[in-house]
Amino acid sequence: TNTPTALIMIFGATGDLAHRKLFPSLYRLYKKGRLTDRFAVLGVARRSLTLEEFQESVRKSIVEFTGEQDGLDEFASHFYYQSHDVTDSSSYIQLRELANKLDEHYGLEGNRLFYLAMAPEFFGTIGDHLKLDGLTDTAGYKRLVIEKPFGHDFESAQELNNRLRQAFSEEEIYRIDHYLGKAMVQNIQVIRFANALFEPLWNNRYISNIQVTSSETLGVEERGRYYEKSGALRDMVQNHMLQMVALLAMEPPIKLNTEEIRSEKVRALRSLRPMSQDEVNQYFVRGQYDEGTINGESVPGYRTEPMVDPESNTETYVAGKLVIDNFRWAGVPFYIRTGKRLGSKSTKIVVQFKDIPMNLYYNTDEKLTPNLLVIHIQPEEGVTLHLNAKKSGSGMKTTPVRLSTASKSIDRMNTPEAYEKLLYDSMRGDATNFTHWDEVALSWKFVDAISAVWENTKETTFPNYAAGSDGPQVADQLLEKDGFEWWPVE
Ligand code: BG6
How far is the CA of 399 from the centre of ligand 1 (A)? Predict the structure, then answer.
């Protein structure tokens, strides 16, 4: 059926993610009839709250983040709470009893979703206890939904994975990368595999380079403690950026099922050329924001943000060139860049096609611009195709024209859309848009080579870009070396 039943146990139920994304997403699913009355949410966190207080916090989050309150009391009555000590067995035993009661009361058939939306240092401990104290011992399905960061590098990720695998099989682990829940990220494969116009051109004979940009205007906010140890490389590249690259680079899957799609993505990640220390310096650059102005407001530099070392070596910007060693992509660079405190909030993919063999229009004043396919991920969603056509009037002058489906969705950017899809998928048992362990492992190995170099060399030019700018100059030089430039993210 398409209306799954489940007990959803949220660890970290008093946290930001639960309030901003998870509760509103569940409410929307409920409103759409994608959750029947046969569901219960069991919120778990350290803080002691009464049931009334917890349900009130759920109602507040819905009103604040969805602007709606239709059926809200009924919805919130499905929420329960337990103040919990993640290291204490007796606390889990209580949790199990409550879970069993809810199961019976709502007819949940023993289906359980354990959602870890809290500090990653407890992921392993919680996994151990869920098994040890009998919570995974259930008649229905059991699934673990787990937020990033999945480890800090390959080794810690592997350790965490081995530990979780004591309690859950690979099929039961749903590793969240919320970019995979974005409508236009899901659209990449449709654009590629449902269009006769693109599929035959999607290779090194016709594509000159691919650029993936994710820029943010936000700074590090209150997350200095986490971000100091993470930086943009671990925070954005290891997961979101490499996932988009994998979707762009992968071979067509034999079928559109979870296993086939994920194994093609794994193959794409396996073809990423590993880098030596020298190559890291040649192919990757980093930046850190200084104070500056964004939308008319002056903002501080990274080094003066709360919980940040005044001499921090942490990068808030990364640009890099990825080389994919396979028949399809040999010779085609994939450029990626991402950073905080840039001039605009935008995620976009630009596919630049090669020049045609001979330019018949070279002596007009317009230079021929290459054909581009732009995939707008956010805030606009859609695609734009940049072509050349004849300028109106006499003569044979050319002018660039655009075919576009892109539209600015009414501030989709911060809505729980992606989470809504991912939550629904995890309840239906569709893991396609979650990352398989093999993808996580390969991404970490790739990124580890870069951090190994960066952590051992103090970047003396930091801070090297002003807040509100387009990022550091070194990012432009990276493409200039290859005779390319970044297409603007307007
Ligand atoms: C998260 C990072 O994974 O993605 C954040 O931890 C970042 O630092 C966020 O701001 C960006 O997501 P989005 O959906 O706003 O592009």
Answer: 37
For ligand 1, mutation pick of 235, 380, 381 (most atoms within 8 Å of CB) = 235
Among residues 78, 84, 129, 240, the one annotated as catalytic is: 240
Distance 327 CA to ligand 1 centre (A): 33
The three-state secondary structure class of 308 is coil
Whole-angstrom Cα Rg for the chain: 24
**Cα 220 to ligand 1 centre (Å):** 10
pLDDT higher than 70, residue 414? no
SS (H, E, C) 34-93: CCCCCEEEEEEECCCCCHHHHHHHHHHHHHHHHCCCCCHHHHHCCEEEEECCCCCHHHHH
Strands (DSSP E) contained in 271-359 are: 284-287, 289-290, 292-294, 297-299, 317-322, 334-339, 346-353
Query: Cα 11 to chain center, whole Å?
Result: 20
Mean pLDDT (whole number) for 70-79: 97
The set of protein residues with a Cβ atom below 6 angstroms from ligand 1 is 148, 216, 218, 235, 347
> 395 falls in which pLDDT band (50, 70, 90)?
confident
pLDDT tier for residue 397 given thresholds of 50, 70 and 90: confident
Is there a binding annotation on residue 235? yes
Task: Tell how far the Cα of 64 is from the centroid of ligand 1, in angstroms.
Answer: 20
Is the ipTM higher than 0.95? The answer is yes
Q: Binding site annotation covers 205?
A: no
Residue 68 known to bind ligand:
no
Mean pLDDT on 390-395? 84
Q: What is the pLDDT of residue 132?
A: 97
CB atoms near residue 162 (< 10 Å) = 11
The contacts of residue 68 (CB under 8 Å, 6+ apart) are: 27, 31, 62
DSSP secondary structure letter of residue 149:
P
Task: Assess whether 84 carries a catalytic annotation.
Answer: no
The answer to whether the annotation marks 84 as part of a ligand binding site is no
